[in-house]
Write a structure and sequence with these properties.
Elements (H helix, E strand, L loop, with lengths): L1 H9 L8 E2 L5 E6 L2 E2 L7 E8 L2 E12 L2 H4 L11 E8 L4 E2 L5 E6 L4 H12 L15 H29 L4 H13 L5 H9 L3 H4 L6 H11 L13 H7 L1 H16 L20 H14 L4 H6 L3 H8 L26 H23 L2 H13 L6 H8 L7 H15 L8 H7 L4
Length: 432
């Protein structure tokens, strides 16, 4: 209930009756104040007129007035600037640590708001607010989608910044780790990030011109150059071919030289996965990309269009993997270039967030603006989340929209955080 009281106060969804203190003084809310997400009073710098006197200060909200004492606010100087106490159930006088009596009002949650909130939280049909989506104005939808898109980029920026910190401040390494994570395309994302973090790029860079050595290091660090990682039916063929042994010997030399320790090969997932998405194929593609130096941050920052980014990120497997999906298993000869749809996802999840994050780091508004422009150029993603919202009346016109809809589902709908959602707000104030 307290969470809903906060919401009612923030949006001034007050009942039709006049607001009165427990002593009968009239209350007019001029400014509800700024929500406080940290310790201390719930709202800062509110403006309320109580009995004809204007008060500027903080607001504290509780289910019960007695919570003021249960939470120890009467002994906490941080609450001495509270000018109004709001509660669903009033009770004892509210006294601050300096002995001042605080005005108090009882606030009811409007019946329709309470009923609508219960529907949002308890309805099984997903998303529960779908009924009002077709009624929303284009301005409301556009402003909310823009906000969600920016939120998602900010989240990815935070993740990239943390990777840069873990990489000793190297943004070049942070790009490599981010790229690797997204080569996992969800299923193997965690494994690819752990793998990329295990590779000392500064040391490996000395061998960057030798593709075979790079592939040996990459495969070895993935734990895929151990005999027991080769599926039993293909083990003999892998031994006869000799490529596995050559990579293994090269990796053993490099591992001794650089003190390398591979990740646990058990981290990789293969179940219900298309062979072109097997870790071996993706690692080979990354080895080719790293060897070509196409994925350097300086080159990425120079790209101004989607096509330039596609040319930069386009890669293929090394020769052995043109006819294999794992060691020893032969397949129809295929160049196994990365697909156009995969390129789009890499641009959305790697290139665009990296440009935005790096732009923030360098205080370069041009890079940040370019990130948003690129999202508007790219076609919308086609996944179950985007299709679901389209059924509800929210159609993604471009990748910026689809990113916004993914953010809406993951950060609001899945968490039942309807009180922070613009659509939830519209639903809550609906009168039926």
């Amino acid at each position: 209930m307290e969470k809903l009281l906060h919401y009612v106060w923030k949006h001034k969804m007050f009942p039709a009756r006049p607001l009165l203190t427990t002593t009968g003084e009239s209350v007019e809310v001029i400014d509800a104040g700024l929500p406080n997400t940290n310790a201390g009073p719930d709202f800062f710098n509110a403006k309320v007129r109580i009995g004809g006197t204007m008060w500027v200060g903080n607001i504290e909200i509780h289910d019960k007035a007695s919570d003021w004492y249960a939470h120890g606010h009467d002994k906490d100087k941080a609450y001495d600037n509270v000018v109004l106490h709001v509660a669903a159930e009033t009770g004892p006088d509210i006294i601050t640590s300096d002995g001042r009596k605080v005005a108090q009002i009882r606030l009811d949650v409007p019946q329709e708001v309470s009923r609508n909130y219960d529907e949002l939280i308890t309805t099984d049909h997903y998303p529960p607010c779908y009924a009002i989506i077709p009624q929303l104005s284009r301005l409301t939808v556009h402003s909310w989608m823009s906000r969600l898109q920016a939120e998602r980029l900010e989240q990815k920026t935070d993740a990239i910044r943390q990777r840069a910190d873990r990489c000793g401040g190297s943004w070049e390494s942070a790009l490599f780790v981010t790229m690797a994570r997204n080569y996992g395309f969800g299923v193997n994302g965690d494994a690819f990030e752990a793998w990329a973090m295990s590779i000392p790029l500064q040391s490996v860079a000395h061998h960057r011109d030798d593709l075979f050595q790079i592939e040996a290091i990459f495969m070895g660090q993935a734990g895929l150059l151990e005999y027991d990682t080769i599926p039993e039916p293909y083990r003999d063929d892998a031994m006869k071919e000799g490529y596995f042994d050559r990579l293994r010997k090269e990796y053993q030399y490099m591992a001794h030289k650089f003190g390398l320790t591979p990740i646990d090969a058990g981290m990789w997932k293969f179940l219900r996965m298309r062979p072109q998405n097997f870790p071996h194929i993706r690692i080979s593609q990354l080895a080719q990309l790293y060897h070509s130096r196409q994925s350097d941050l300086s080159r990425l920052a120079e790209c101004t269009s989607v096509e330039q980014l596609k040319d930069l990120l386009r890669t293929r497997v090394t020769p052995y993997w043109e006819t294999h999906y794992t060691f020893g298993s032969t397949s129809v000869k295929n160049r196994k270039s990365i697909s156009d749809s995969s390129l789009n996802l890499l641009i959305i999840n790697t290139a665009v967030p990296m440009l935005f994050a790096y732009g923030r780091h360098r205080h370069d508004d041009t890079l940040c603006s370019r990130a948003f422009s690129l999202l508007s150029e790219l076609r919308a993603e086609n996944n179950h989340i985007v299709r679901l919202w389209e059924q509800c009346g929210l159609k993604a016109e471009n990748a910026g929209d689809s990113q916004a809809l993914i953010q809406l589902k993951k950060e609001y709908c899945d968490k039942k955080d309807c009180l922070r959602c613009r659509i939830g707000y519209e639903y809550l104030k609906t009168k039926r």
